[in-house]
From TrEMBL:
Residues 161-250 form the Transposase IS204/IS1001/IS1096/IS1165 DDE domain. Residues 40-83 form the Transposase IS204/IS1001/IS1096/IS1165 zinc-finger domain. This is ISL3 family transposase. It comes from Ruminococcus turbiniformis. InterPro entries: Transpos_ISL3 (IPR047951), Transposase_DDE (IPR002560), Transposase_Znf (IPR029261). It holds the Pfam family DDE_Tnp_ISL3.
Amino acid sequence: MPTNSSLDLQRFYPDELEIVSIEEDPDEIRLHMLSRSKSFCCPKCGEELRKLHATHHRTVQDLPILGKRVFLDIRVHDFQCQNPICEIGAFSETFHGFLNHYSRMTERLIDFVTILALETSCEASARIMQAMHVKISGDTVIRMLLKRYQTQSHIPCGSHIGVDDFAFKKRYTYGTIIVDENSHIPVAVLEGRDGSALKAWLTQNKQVTTVTRDRASAYAKAVEEILPDCMQIADRFHLHQNLLEAVKSVINSTVPVDIKIPKDAASPYAETAVSDILVESSKKNV
């Protein structure tokens, strides 16, 4: 029974985008596409836009096809919002989230890159994507992650939080992470660890009543200044660290630095001799 072995590329793209022509060479596929949409929903006020303002060409990169780099050369419509109370004016169509308004990549390609970066690293994901014939750099991956983070919706935060610092780049750039202790979900990532960004965040989150933190004085002062009635708790790791330092201090003050060991270590009296030395030494220190 005969079968159709041809690949219909139109099936992999929105219905409003029509493939007009295809250019192919050994390393790249370029699809020339034309928008057929007649309306667009305003992202600001939600009103349906039907008045065409202008058209322009966009070249965006898409997921590779059969190991070849893919570029979409699209003629896109700009629609004008006629709502008098809307401040957005004209806006380019996004084809139900297939494109965004600023990137040179399709949203599905950005999704793939960001997931790969979160599972590996920015530089590693860039090298993998380059091996897949996607034109991208590690710095571009970082910018993608930052933009995705900035566009995330606000995460609600409870009254109990944990605060700690971390290194973007060790010994150079640091940040502050805030975690909701009830859900164990990070709710904010702030720049710096001097407490200034934490102050601004606490000003917008006055519902916080308990803060678990490390021993950094900057965090303690920030919480005390903005939320004076808030309870501050030292986290478990630093409590253990404080205990170890206290035990170490006691041992260093009791046991001398140099302990003379008998020459005959194999003698059955060697262990007793060492114990006597330690006891005598502790009595003198007391």
